[in-house]
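Tutorial, part two.
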Amino acid sequence: MAPITELHPAADDTRASRAAFVRDSLKSERWSIRHAASELGMSHTALSTRVRGATPFLADELEAIARFLLKRDPIEFYAEYLAAGQPPADTKNAPFPKEGGVSEWAQRGSNPRPAD
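Running the prediction step on this input gives:
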């Protein structure tokens, strides 16, 4: 039997969560994508694909966003960027949905864990 592959890799979810973090950070400081891209010296299209999560950010882009646009410490911003979208360290005590009693971090989908 052939192994089952995921249709939507977890890396895409992580990249999308991190992109949303950057997008929300820019939005909270009232930066439009077009104006932010202009200030960073990059094309509007390039920044747009990054804040949608289609393309990952480069480290120097994150540093420029933190330092020049958000006026924040780049190391602190980068640490928050990396943490965005990651499940809590203690998944045993992760939040439960109102019905079903299954942790939101529980494995789902087409790749069930084999029985021991």
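The longest helix spans residues 10-28. In part three we will examine how such features are distributed along the chain.
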